[in-house]
UniProtKB/TrEMBL annotation:
Organism this protein belongs to: Oryza barthii
Source taxon at top rank: Eukaryota
Pfam family, one: LRR_At1g61320_AtMIF1
Residue ranges of domain At1g61320/AtMIF1 LRR in the record: 3-345
InterPro entries from the UniProt entry: At1g61320/At1g61330-like, LRR_At1g61320_AtMIF1, LRR_dom_sf
Protein name, per record: At1g61320/AtMIF1 LRR domain-containing protein
Gene3D superfamilies found in the cross-reference section: Ribonuclease Inhibitor (3.80.10.10)
């Protein structure tokens, strides 16, 4: 079965589940099955394909105007995808969601305007990047994969969400050496990280902006283990930590707080923020470490409201009065006197 639209089409979505409609603006086409061949209009700029097999024909010479391509539940081989990308010269964004046949994703250097890559629940084992303009990369999945960056590639911003495995260990051992130009990183996941006694082997030498949302599996030091990541990012300018505690308030004395051995100071860190700051012991210790080790810090925000979303700031709506009281007590009892005069402390 063939499907064609007018030459002036700009956006096209094909959802090829059985008995599903295919929508293009206000026109609907009903196909009884997903066995079809589709000659695409060359004027299409935004293309989304769902639940189908995709294989370029021998006469395929690309979609000259295509800017965004989104494939969801699409079976396409890595060779066919690379061939498609090689002939799509205006492509700017690529989104892949649950495409099972792509284990090695290679982005060639042909789409010169390509700057955004989003991979969601694809079982890739290796990501090979040869383009220079890729700026943003979003990844959500459970697979640790090898990153190969071609010569001249300037990979600057990445968002990684891992559903299993040690996200921090992967970031330091795999991402740091593979992405030397990375400036912004948002990392979500789990970690068993412990505090090492020596400097990390790999460092993020260009990383300026870092957001961490970690569930720490090492209960001994918990959030204080995040200091290991700070050691690997000596040139940070802004740090946001989204605390994921289960509201375990710290009832001890100041003398019970742990202090780490002296480390190299952070001379560039000017802004730090912790959301979900509820007075749990390791969160207090982490805040104190940031204050003590950041010689040029200008502002520290300790926000008791938990951050819930993946990439956007979405908070829980209400905070009980008792939580506010504990939060304010924690600040006055453990944090306030450690704040240098040049640092602005915001907490409510």
């Amino acid at each position: 079965m063939y499907f064609a639209v007018s030459s002036g089409a700009k956006e096209l979505t094909l959802d090829l589940r059985p008995q599903r409609f295919i929508h293009y603006r206000n026109i609907q086409y009903n196909f009884p099955s997903s066995n079809f061949a589709t000659p695409m209009p060359t004027s299409v700029e935004h293309l989304k394909l769902l639940f189908c097999y995709l294989r370029p024909s021998p006469t395929f010479f690309g979609l000259s105007n295509l800017k965004t391509l989104e494939l969801s539940f699409v079976r396409i081989t890595k060779e066919d995808l690379e061939s498609l990308l090689s002939y799509t010269f205006s492509l700017q964004e690529l989104k892949l969601s649950q495409c099972p046949n792509i284990d090695h994703l290679r982005i060639p250097d042909v789409p010169s305007k390509f700057n955004y890559l989003d991979i969601d629940l694809c079982w890739i084992r290796a990501l090979e990047i040869h383009i220079q303009n890729l700026v943003i990369f979003n990844y959500h999945g459970s697979v640790r994969f090898r990153i190969i960056q071609g010569e001249g590639s300037l990979f600057k911003e990445a968002r990684f969400q891992f559903s299993c495995g040690d996200a921090i260990e992967y970031a330091i051992t795999e991402m740091a050496p593979a992405l030397p130009n990375l400036e912004t990183l948002f990392l979500i996941g789990f970690s068993k990280m412990v505090i090492p006694t020596r400097d990390p082997r790999h460092r993020f030498h260009c990383l300026k902006h870092l957001q961490l949302k970690m569930i720490m599996l090492s209960k001994k030091y918990n959030n204080l283990c995040l200091v290991s990541f700070l050691d690997a990012a000596p040139f940070l300018e802004s740090l946001i930590v989204h605390v994921c505690n289960e509201s375990l308030y710290y009832p001890g004395k100041k003398t019970d707080l742990r202090r780490l051995e002296k480390r190299k100071p952070h001379k560039n860190l000017k802004f730090a923020k912790m959301t979900g700051f509820d007075g749990e012991r390791s969160s207090i210790e982490l805040a104190l470490h940031i204050l003590e080790s950041s010689t040029n810090l200008e502002c520290l925000i300790l926000d008791p409201i938990k951050y819930k979303s993946e990439w956007k700031y979405i908070y829980e709506e209400n905070l009980r009065d008792v939580q506010w009281r504990v939060h304010n007590f924690t600040i006055s009892e453990y944090i306030a006197e450690a704040v240098p005069s040049h640092v602005k402390l915001l907490f409510s």
